[in-house]
Amino acid sequence: MDANHNPSTTEEQAWAPPLALLQVTGPEAQPFLQNLLTADLRALAPAAGTIQAVPAAFLNPQGRVLFVVVVALASPQQAWLVVPEIMRAETSRLLSRYILRTKVRLVSWQGAIELQEPLATQPGAAPWQGFIRPAGEGEQYSLGWPNGWVLHWTSAPRDPAHAPPAAPSPWAAFHGQEIATGMPWILPGTSGLFLPQMLNLEQQGGLSMEKGCYPGQEIVARVHFRGQVKRHLYHGTAAQWLEPGTPLYSATTTPEQRGSHAPGHVLRLAPQGQGWRALLVAEAPGSYQSASGVAITIDAAADDQGQRKSTPRQPSPQSTSPEMGTTSSDQHPA
pLDDT tens digit string along 251-303? Predict the structure, then answer.
């Protein structure tokens, strides 16, 4: 981050929220999540003492993403859900509605995730892979992340009396590097705006077209097999801070159209130099601006890489076909 660029506390809380955990345990933990989320968790088969993870989304009946989690599976009877702290309560509320008589227990883990920054002299940990080892009266979990960092937590939250001294928050650096990997966290301002295909979840292993039913699956399947998604995930730069979910307009968007159609939305931002590095969902590369006039540009290089679809972090190929499964969130920007 440039020394002259100092985001306010409010901005940093919005773009660099700490990650939090929900724990799902019980004889039916894995099938419970399998029936609700977009990823196929049957592909996860961690050996004893290890964990495997995958991003996944929960959708509304219209196929729109309400939240994104990373499912860290330790066994068919135990899973951890990594989610931005600001979304933890809502994630727990929505999942709890489906427990009913299922043999599952969902609890909000109150400890703090510890971050280990990648070292220049060592390769980063394998993404979405981790291990479990004894730690006092419980267990310590360590999970590699796509940006090279490692997340650590324990099954029993640390006693505050034995916690390490307070240190500067590492979340700003973590999220700044995470933007480059295209991790599509959903925050309150973007919940319900996007189909999972718009967030590159299929390329990241977080959306399966082979699994059975889950909420919103019919719309997702219709888009996949009959039509094309019109908007995709891109990297870009913004001149100023914009709230996640801010509608973006192109030069060809008329004032009359602004009330009914936004060709792009801000997903995430992080400071970069004098401006902001951004992930945004848009119809095409080019120059955009917010209603307040803040300029944002999609990088041509990111679009070129996206055409090759070489890694999960890049945008999907463009399509000129009409988007299917359109809801009011497309017609009226949030």
Answer: 877 776 776 788 999 999 999 888 999 999 999 889 999 999 999 998 743 43
Go through the domains of the chain in sequence order and give each one's CATH number.
9-170 (3.30.70.1400), 181-331 (2.40.30.160)
In three-state secondary structure terms, 36 is coil
* Cβ contact 194:281 at 8 Å: yes
The span from the CA of 143 to the CA of 162, in Å, is 23
Element at 217 (helix H, strand E): helix 217-226
- Lookup: tokens for 123: 């390769």
Which is nearest to 238 in space by CA: 307, 168, 290? 290
Phi and psi angles of residue 264, each rounded to the nearest 5 degrees, phi first: -160, 160
3 state SS of 222: helix
Q: Nearest Cα to 311, choosing from 167, 127, 85, 176?
A: 127
3-class secondary structure, 127: coil
Under a CB-based contact definition with an 8 Å cutoff, are residues 270 and 15 in contact? yes
Could you read off the pLDDT of 197-252 as tens digits, one per residue? 999 999 899 999 999 899 999 999 999 888 778 899 999 999 999 999 999 998 87
